[in-house]
């Protein structure tokens, strides 16, 4: 590997319980309001959603658009730069399918089903 490895930068963006789920929602649904994201990801707290969105916004993966009106309206979408991650997401999906098949061979079909939902979600997000 090169001494100029930027793998940690990619992991900073992708790793975490919620970032891939948020990205999946935005890749799949397009522009979403904060409340729509909350409803789409019911297990996430408001504080955590805000934190994860800010981190994705910092990395220019997610765009935050504020409408100055009453009540306030904020929308989130994947940026043009964020869309460039589609190739990465697709590669991760391909490996996820390979790994799911591998787990099925090792443990049987039931064990692999746990991974299928996430793998299918990433597949849909990358399209």
Poorly predicted parts: 122-127
Query: What's the helical proportion of residues?
Result: 55-70%
Could you say how many structural domains there are in total? 2
Q: Can you give the mean pLDDT? A: 84
Overall geometry comes to globular
The CATH topology of the largest domain is given as Arc Repressor Mutant, subunit A
Distance between the termini: 30 Å
Strand content bin: 5-15%
Q: Rounded to an integer, what's the Rg over CA atoms?
A: 16 Å
Largest sheet: 3 strands, antiparallel
The arrangement of helices and strands along the chain is: HHEHHEEHHH
User: CATH superfamily membership of the largest domain, which one?
Assistant: Winged helix-like DNA-binding domain superfamily/Winged helix DNA-binding domain
Q: How many DSSP helices?
A: 7
Q: Total number of β-strand segments?
A: 3
Q: According to CATH, what is the class of the largest domain?
A: Mainly Alpha
Domain HTH hxlR-type: 5-104
GO molecular function: DNA binding
Keywords: DNA-binding, Transcription, Transcription regulation
Pfam family, one: HxlR
């Amino acid at each position: 590997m090169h001494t100029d490895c930027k793998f940690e930068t990619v992991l900073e963006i992708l790793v975490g319980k919620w970032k891939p789920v948020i990205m999946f929602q935005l890749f799949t649904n397009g522009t979403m309001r904060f409340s729509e994201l909350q409803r789409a990801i019911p297990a996430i707290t408001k504080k955590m959603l805000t934190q994860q969105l800010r981190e994705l916004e910092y990395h220019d993966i997610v765009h935050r658009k504020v409408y100055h009106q009453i009540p306030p309206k904020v929308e989130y979408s994947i940026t043009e730069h964020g869309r460039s991650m589609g190739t990465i997401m697709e590669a991760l999906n391909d490996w996820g399918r390979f790994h799911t098949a591998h787990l099925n061979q090792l443990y049987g079909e039931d064990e692999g089903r746990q991974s299928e939902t996430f793998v299918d979600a990433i597949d849909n997000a990358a399209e």
